[in-house]
Amino acid sequence: MKIGHLRLIGVFIAALLIVVAASFYVGEGHFSVRKLDGAQLRSSPIASGKSSTETAVNVGGNDGEGAGEVADVTKTSLRGLKTGSGPFAGEAVLLSGDSMSLGKAKILFDRENFPSLLNGFERKYSGDPEAQALKRLYFSDMKRQLSGRSDISGVDFECGTTVCIGALRLKGGVDDPNLVESTLGKTNPVYGLMETSDAVGDVIEKRFSFSVDPKVNSISSN
């Protein structure tokens, strides 16, 4: 086989691998992994996963279906959050070992569950000095990044000692796919960023979570 043909086949295989790595489907949910080139990666503290090129996972779907089996602590905490009579495991509901949990996020980022998750974080960590210091640090940076925008109708943000969660609301019904990623990680490190978009009327809510701990820098499918 000629060298030219071998090179052509090599280019085709490389292109195919990039497409597969950039987008994959699990059940009915669509999960996409955005990537940065080397120069961008070196200038950005955002990182998710042990691969040096992965920066954010988009959690598709709002119904929580197709997430697979999740830890009992997630279901127990969710029942407790909604009824007000039960334990809340805090940031552990979004973790799987030393990784951010995609399966748990798919359930907890549902529009029916996320407000309870925010309230649970607020109640559990309101008296924790470390969590409150992290909240002030990251929230002040977010406000600076959003100060020049007129399309933001609301912001929610809470932190534990390892995980922070939040939501950005865009008015006008026009999505900005890069809003969360461009708002976070400009000054302070962000790891294992997971996000989803949910349109309610003419408002698009971008829900997200991330780790502030470099030891919790990967995303697990569990």
From TrEMBL:
For region Disordered, the annotated ranges are: 44-63
Show the ranges annotated as biased composition (Polar residues): 44-56
Q: Membrane-spanning regions, if any?
A: 6-26
Q: Which UniProt keywords apply?
A: Membrane, Transmembrane, Transmembrane helix
Keyword flag Membrane: yes
Report the domain of life of the source organism.
Bacteria
Its name, as the record gives it, is Uncharacterized protein
Tell me what organism the protein belongs to. Xanthomonas sontii
